[in-house]
Amino acid sequence: MRILILGGDGYLGWPTAMHLSAKGHEVIAVDNYLRRNLSREENCEALYEVPNLQRRASLWKEASGHEVAVRIGNLCDWSFTADIFQEFRPDALVHYAEQPSAPYSMKSREAAALTLQNNLSTTFNVIQAVNQFAPECHIVKLGTMGEYGTPDIDIEEGWIEIEHKGRKQKFLYPRQAGSLYHTTKVLDTDLLWFYVRMWGLRVTDLMQGPVYGVETDENAGREDLYPFLNYDELFGTVFNRFIVQAVAGYPLTVYGKGGQTRGYLDIRDTLQCIRLAVDNPAGKGELRIFNQFVETFSVNRIAEVVRKSGERLGLKVEVKSLPNPRKEMEDHYYNPAHTGLIELGLKPHYLTDETLDRMMQLVMRYRNSIVAERIFRGVKWKA
Ligand SMILES: NC(=O)c1ccc[n+]([C@@H]2O[C@H](COP(=O)([O-])OP(=O)(O)OC[C@H]3O[C@@H](n4cnc5c(N)ncnc54)[C@H](O)[C@@H]3O)[C@@H](O)[C@H]2O)c1
Fold first, then answer.
1. Which residue has its alpha carbon closest to ligand 1 atom 4?
2. What is the predicted pLDDT for the residue at 383?
């Protein structure tokens, strides 16, 4: 298949580009380096240097013989986007190209405006370009489990049947996001659902939980092909952050009571899920939604398993509760369904001591590059 990876320089985009090219697909990775530029502006670059996208594509070609073509540009720019679709006419695309940080989106008016404009414009341009140049193209879109929030009832996989005064209909499961970033994902889903109904697009919307890890089958033993490992509050995900905090001797930053529970997955499972979605496309006029995570953890539990991993490796790890800078429930019911991807064939990599220890050992090799002031800044949800 011809597959576009939008956001192909990102934490997940680059491993996906390698993975799908290794499976024999023709892949173009598109990116405008927004993530790198924001990290630099905010003084929160990743733990180790990551070569630019063109350089990584050459390293990957040398290592594997597989090709990833690269286009650098802004997907909010219609003529740039239209040119790529017109030239390539993809069979499928994976849309990662968004500003993905909740704290960044809550940091200032400017950061909120960038997040809203960027995320909705890329999604809008993708929809328009598919309709105009590749109407059969399967859109695989990254949403987030955060679209649902933490309701006091079970979370279904995207849809819920509602019975009202004796009549029934299936609707999108109610959304109540907890940050502006998550709200842009809710708006994306609405936009996609609207155009699926109007234009019969094929869409898979993946409600993904936070991802951890950097090692995949394609980059094993090749640290120059690893994706970013951010450990700062803005762009780091919680497992990755806690592991770096443990190595740095920085008390693990649990917010409030630490009962915040979410669904997590190993980066290798992100790749499996994307491949399964691509190999089994949504039907024409279908908005198919999967909840993309394999197991749930509370923040307290994550702190505990990271602390134990640190102990196994001779580190003394402290856990500290901080006043919660966010507005969120710290103790809540959480029971989301996640059977769709398993039914498609997902074989989960559940978190093991070995996985955690390998990550910890990787970070220990970069111990001297950790900049402690990047770890916590306490972006408040309400000033
Ligand atoms: N990482 C996670 O744990 C996680 C969890 C749930 C959902 N997601 C979603 O998955 C997607 C990928 O996440 P990630 O962690 O790889 O983020 P990332 O920031 O590393 O990757 C996104 C990439 O898109 C690029 N991009 C953004 N706007 C663009 C534009 N206008 N034009 C071209 N490129 C643009 C960025 O430069 C970046 O390289 C995001 O949409 C994110 O919201 C991620």
1. 210
2. 74
